[in-house]
Amino acid sequence: MKMGKVCLILGESGSGKSASLRNFEPNEVAIFNVSEKPLPFRKKLPIVNTSDMRAIAAEIKRNVRNCYVVDDAGLAMTFYLFARVQDKGYEKFTNLAKQFYDLVQTAIRDTSDDTITYFVMHTERSDDGSRIKAKTTGKMIDSQLTLESLFSIVLYCVTDGKRHYFITQSDGVTTAKSPMDMFDLEIDNDLKFVDTAIREYYGLAANGTPVQKKENPAAQVEKTDKLPG
Predict the structure, then answer these.
(1) Looking at the 3D structure of the chain, how many domains does it have?
(2) Any alpha helices (H) in 158-220, and if so which ranges?
(3) Residue 77: which CATH number?
(4) Does 211 reside within a domain?
(5) What gap in Å lies between CA 58 and CA 132, rounded to an integer?
(6) Which residues of the chain have pLDDT under 50?
(7) Maximal C-alpha separation, the chain
């Protein structure tokens, strides 16, 4: 059974999460720009501006690239709730958790085994202050879905004011994690390097290699620009 790979990138604002995309070439990645903000570097990379998680899932399912980035996946959840601020009850929170879960599962189950999808999110402290975790839209989401449990690779992006880097394993405070011997404990915040390392570790096709299509291609994305291919 073919299964795509997913990776969670966590960090505070300004820690270098979006900047980590700088070394990709245009044919190597497709970025879902949730907040429609400019990338923090001059290189032009393929971008789809949308916060609609179902639209993002449909585009990923088309699988015209073998590398996707959802930046910022946490904002997609926030914007979902903003659009439903007048709705009463807890159903909207359950539906939100389900849509995010379905998006991650689409990236895993409905893409080729050499496709990697990166979910970029901000961080927050747990209620007791003991952990740094993915920032969600509140306790209801956390009770419905533990985001980090959906990912086998979670990288924590930090800066000390002089350099930006990824932490690849938990120190007991962060939720960072990665397979044994995939990375050093600290690596440069270079997502192209990360992508190459993951592909080498699992024996996947190189980034930018034409995707081997599955039997049931996804429906077309509605109300957003589609990537070429």
Answers:
(1) 1
(2) 191-202
(3) 3.40.50
(4) no
(5) 31
(6) 216-224
(7) 49
